[in-house]
Specification:
Helices cover 23% and strands 28% of the residues. By secondary structure, the protein is an alpha+beta fold. Strands 2-6-5-4-1-3 form a six-stranded mixed sheet, with no helix packed on it. It starts with a helix and ends with a strand.
């Protein structure tokens, strides 16, 4: 039989709590599976992140000034070269390190090889 909502009052659901990405689930802790902890440790370790191959976008000479002023769009005409690391596929969408023609860091951005706005900048902090 179904309970009548009028007799029992309105049904309310309790808020759900989701596990934090930094804590392991009860099932993995009970099974002794440390895979989630190992993945978290690898992601949290700065040295592993620094070793990832990053494509560098090199600006044409005298094109960096707007980006030091935090302009977020880099048009395709401002980029002289995309330096893709050896063995890297060069995906259509990827994170790039924007540098000046003389090698100085400018910003981090998201590359879209199929757009006139080739890079959309999101961070001017090199670290």
């Amino acid at each position: 039989m179904c309970a009548d909502p009028v007799e029992n009052g309105p049904q309310t659901s309790s808020p759900q709590s989701f596990p934090s990405p930094t804590t392991s689930s009860p099932a993995s802790a009970a099974d002794g599976d440390s895979a989630s902890a190992e993945v978290h440790d690898a992601v949290a370790d700065d040295s592993s992140v620094a070793e990832l191959p990053i494509t560098e976008a090199v600006l044409k000479p005298r094109r960096a000034q707007p980006f030091f002023g935090r302009h977020p769009w880099v048009f395709a005409g401002a980029v002289s070269e995309l330096r893709t690391p050896p063995g890297h596929s060069g995906a259509v969408h990827e994170v790039v390190r924007l540098i000046t023609s003389d090698g100085r860091f400018v910003a981090w951005g998201l590359l879209n090889r199929n757009s006139r706005i080739q890079i959309r900048l999101y961070s001017w902090d090199e670290s």
